[in-house]
Amino acid sequence: MKIVVRFAAIITLAAFIGPLSADAQSLDSLLSGLSRGDRERLVQTGAIEQYIENHRRLSYAPDHPLARAIEDRVNEVRPNVISEQIVLVRGDVDRVELLRLYNSLRRVSDLSYLQYYNERKDSTNELFHDSFAVAGPEDRTPVSDPTVTSIPEEDTVWVLQGLPPFGTILSRYRYRSGGEAFLFSGTNVDTLTYRSVPVVQPGNMITDILVIPGDGFVLMYGVGAVRAFKMFGLLDDRIEAAFSGRTEGLFNWYRDTYLVEIGDN
Prior knowledge:
two-stranded antiparallel ribbon, nine-stranded antiparallel sheet, 13 strands, about 260 residues
């Protein structure tokens, strides 16, 4: 009996840490919507990004249902400040590593006082002040980071974050999975104000990170977008630096802290 139990346990463990399913999309299929030049740059450099003001100019989205969900969100918000990035890392991930990548986006306290470098402004800034999960939109009592032992099909986490120079805001973090891929989607619940002026209404600041593992690679697609009131052009530079730089910092943190390790293995 002990031998049977141990054998069953080994089979269960092997299924958890073993390779991902063989029906994953090929890299060529995922990148079929990119221009030839963008595909070549991505393969050569491992990452490409762009900053745009027209939501119709998104051009890096992989051919995947969860990427189309990102495009739908962007089209609904119609943002005027957009950061788009796609990252390609060569290497394989098993289910343990995939869960680690997923949970890294649920450990929201790790974002507290995280520093990022803004190349366009040649300055170092804080991504957030305090960052922590809360019980809900009405009960903002802090709770522990909501990490999980298996990736659910869908889940929602409420997060309170200090977002300089806009104060402390509540955001809704939604997590979805499809096949082996998973999508993180952040949306502001509170209004963002700058010097007492409302600049971003609820639901108009979105951040999406899509992770797609494949045969010998992991693809990350990220979009940060906001529909902001720029006070008739007076806040153009300030708004763009505050949102695009922060989005770039978040994407680079995730890439450099978690994705690069895959290529090093």
